[in-house]
Batch of 3 targets.
Target 1
Amino acid sequence: MDTQTGMLALDPGSITVTTAAELARAHSNPAGTKLCQRCGDPYPCAVLRHAQQVCTLAGVTPQTAPSPIAVASKHSF
């Protein structure tokens, strides 16, 4: 929790945020159609909207967040 804003703050390098960024990139709509090119739902699809919310809470955009593979390689699971 961010004590200044009262909002939830997420670590931009967390696997949650990086996975959300990857989902947002996958569910983008570069062709500008009315349907998500990944899942076929009306654009913007629920996956994209929720992934963008996670990125916003972390203060990153889907384009600037590190990849989940890069983050996972730094951690031993």
Target 2
Amino acid sequence: MKQIIIKTGQVALIVLGVLLIQGALGASDNFSISFAECLIRCGIGMAMIVAVIWIPRIAQAIRLHKKSKEEVDNHAA
């Protein structure tokens, strides 16, 4: 159940990031926002997508590193 909630949240954040980028590009086409504001919005959307993809992988690598370090410490003692 916990995995389903996490995956649903990840998908929602990716979709939100994509919509943010598309909205910023569309508003830039209509000249309703400046180019700099478009870049900021696109940057935020891209950061959301990258974070959703990479944070779980980084967290898993840290957990595995801590687990292997504890096993080495247990064998040494």
Target 3
Amino acid sequence: MPKRQLQVPTEKKVTLIRLDGIDKTTKEGKHMSYMNERVAFLKGLAEGMEIDSSTKEGKLLLQIIDVLEEFAGEVEEVYEELDELNDAILELDEYVEAIDEDLSELEDDVFDLEDEYEEVECPDCGETLYVDGQIIDKGEEVECPNCGLIIEFSDDCDCEDEDCDCEKSE
């Protein structure tokens, strides 16, 4: 059974096709019709040998050649479809690379913002707020957009909780 192998190229529109141990390279969708040439050779050979289609052996050989011709045509169509798929893969690869670059830029922007903002939970409604670190450092107030509670930031802690991770003033 012949082995077929398709490798997605790193350069655009070059496909390596391995069939019957023979490397065939196609460019720009133009296939070298090696199989069609071999079938045409066999057909010409059969005509040159004047194979008699009235004998059992002659019918068999001529039918085999006809089937080979159909297979060669089908294989040629498969190669054309592979070229189309290869083009689509290359186009998608370029698209994915563009998306990856955009995502990378977006991640850089978001991670820069994360460094500037701190996550704060509203003590009243539990809503998560993202507050600029400078507002917290200055001890300013922020209003919760969900419940309207004014949240004050201070270095002093009045809590009696020993598990509190705030800095107690002593």
